[in-house]
């Protein structure tokens, strides 16, 4: 029968979307809320992620244990995540369990926010922050983006900091929830074997009490870039470098070229950075990635190795960034287009993945594209596109962060 897309906007402002495939053996549902780290006041940085944790503690009439047991009884695979752009709560089930799983997800969206749960989760999140603080890549990425955006909320850390999470109050969280978790900020996405009309009616009835109010427009970032900075830590024994430069936003069609450019530079095992840094033994690892965001984008290059060779690593990274577009070949691009197309296709095989794709895109951009549309755009990227991208977004690092062992390191 093929896949059919449907969309209905409820009177409350909630968008309900679905990629329906009645031949699928499973179904998936996700509630996406257009709020994340970039929407937080600086003093409560991390509140979106903290709130994500609190949702699993249940509403007033359903404790966490009962909520978890109900999901288990349905055989559902459920979880959530928070980014700079959005927060998502989702479940992957057999089709017959989808209505009940959807009801549970919706009930989660009216959390009790109990104070004893709040203190318990504060401790969990502080441990999570400490865990990421032991990861050199995340240490550099957070420090670099914070400096790169010069105080703009795009530089906020999704987990927050020990100071902001440690001092946050339940009242501050409740205020943030009331302002940001509204019907107009929400999208409910389905994929797989779904009775769309029945689920629309179900959502409409179960969300009638949700707060109204459109999310405020996001402020565009001002000029970005912080030059070069260095950090030292006694807990590391290797040297690490991370370079950040502007790139197209998620709404920009050039994002497909940016994605492939990041692969030309830093695809694992076969890329310019691999062959110039890892293969000759100058670095232990060297990668690149494109991060598309609402209104902004970043190209990030990362490498690690002997601290004594960091200056050499930096010279190679800077040189490869400068010449990658000009020296890329049609063979390079054909190989990477094929890999990217394979990744997109694999991501479309499971209803859970399709639900995430359409839900995230609708939440940020308010639009739908078929998987075939995405494949055609990936396959359509040319060498001329890469070179035009390089002219529009010169691959010269605007922010470079270096992390070295401290003097007290063993």
Written overview of the protein:
The protein has 15 helices and eleven strands. With about 400 residues, it is α+β, with helices and mostly antiparallel strands. It is globular.
Explain the layout of strands and helices.
Blueprint: E1 4-9, E2 15-20, E3 27-33, H1 47-55, H2 64-73, E4 77-82, E5 87-93, H3 98-108, H4 115-132, H5 136-148, H6 162-167, H7 170-180, E6 186-192, H8 196-206, E7 227-233, E8 239-246, H9 255-266, H10 272-278, E9 285-292, E10 297-305, H11 310-327, H12 330-346, H13 351-365, H14 371-379, H15 383-392, E11 399-405
Parallel strand pairs: 2-6, 7-11
Antiparallel strand pairs: 1-2, 3-5, 3-6, 4-5, 8-10, 8-11, 9-10
Question: Which key features would you list for this structure?
Answer:
six-stranded mixed sheet, 11 strands, 410 residues, alpha+beta
User: How many distinct helices?
Assistant: 15
For this structure, the quaternary state is single chain
Secondary-structure element string: EEEHHEEHHHHHEHEEHHEEHHHHHE
Largest sheet: 6 strands, mixed
Which class of secondary structure composition applies to the elements? Answer: alpha+beta
| β-strand amount | 15-25%
Radius of gyration: 22 Å
Overall number of strands = 11
Ends apart, CA distance between termini: 63 Å
Question: How does the overall form come out from the CA principal axes?
Answer: globular
Summed over residues and divided by their number, the pLDDT gives a mean of 93
Lateral arrangement of strands in the main beta sheet: 1-2-6-3-5-4
């Amino acid at each position: 029968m093929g896949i059919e897309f449907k969309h209905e906007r409820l009177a409350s402002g909630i968008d309900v979307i679905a990629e329906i495939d009645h031949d699928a053996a499973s179904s998936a549902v996700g509630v996406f809320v257009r709020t994340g780290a970039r929407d937080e006041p600086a003093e409560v940085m991390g509140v979106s992620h903290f709130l994500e944790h609190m949702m699993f503690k249940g509403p007033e009439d359903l404790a966490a244990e009962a909520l978890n047991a109900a999901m288990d009884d349905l055989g559902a695979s459920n979880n959530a995540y928070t980014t700079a752009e959005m927060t998502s709560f989702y479940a992957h089930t057999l089709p017959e369990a989808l209505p009940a799983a959807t009801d549970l997800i919706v009930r989660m969206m009216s959390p009790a926010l109990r104070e004893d749960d709040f203190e318990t989760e504060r401790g969990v999140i502080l441990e999570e922050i400490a865990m990421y603080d032991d990861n050199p890549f995340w240490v550099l990425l957070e420090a670099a983006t914070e400096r790169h955006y010069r105080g703009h909320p795009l530089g906020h850390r999704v987990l927050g900091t020990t100071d902001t999470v440690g001092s946050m109050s339940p009242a501050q969280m409740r205020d943030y929830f009331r302002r940001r978790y509204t019907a107009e900020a929400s999208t409910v996405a389905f994929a797989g074997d779904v009775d769309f009309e029945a689920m629309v009616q179900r959502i409409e009835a179960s969300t009638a009490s949700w707060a109204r109010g459109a999310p405020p427009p996001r402020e565009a970032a001002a000029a970005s870039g912080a030059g070069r900075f260095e950090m030292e830590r006694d807990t590391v024994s290797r040297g690490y470098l991370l370079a950040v430069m502007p790139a197209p936003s998620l709404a920009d069609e050039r994002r497909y070229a940016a994605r492939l450019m990041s692969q030309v530079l830093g695809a694992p095992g076969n890329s310019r950075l691999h062959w110039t840094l890892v293969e000759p033994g100058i670095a232990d690892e060297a990668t690149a990635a494109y991060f598309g965001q609402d209104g902004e984008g970043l190209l990030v290059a990362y490498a690690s190795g002997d601290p004594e060779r960091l200056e050499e690593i930096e010279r190679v990274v800077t040189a490869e960034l400068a010449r990658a577009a000009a020296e890329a070949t049609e063979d390079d691009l054909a190989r990477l287009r094929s890999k990217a197309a394979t990744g997109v296709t694999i991501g479309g095989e499971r209803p859970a993945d399709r639900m995430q794709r359409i839900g995230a895109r609708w939440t940020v951009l308010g639009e739908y594209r078929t998987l075939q549309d995405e494949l055609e755009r990936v396959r359509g990227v040319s060498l001329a596109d890469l070179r035009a991208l390089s002219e529009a977004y010169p691959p010269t690092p605007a922010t470079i962060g270096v992390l070295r062992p401290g003097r007290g390191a063993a």
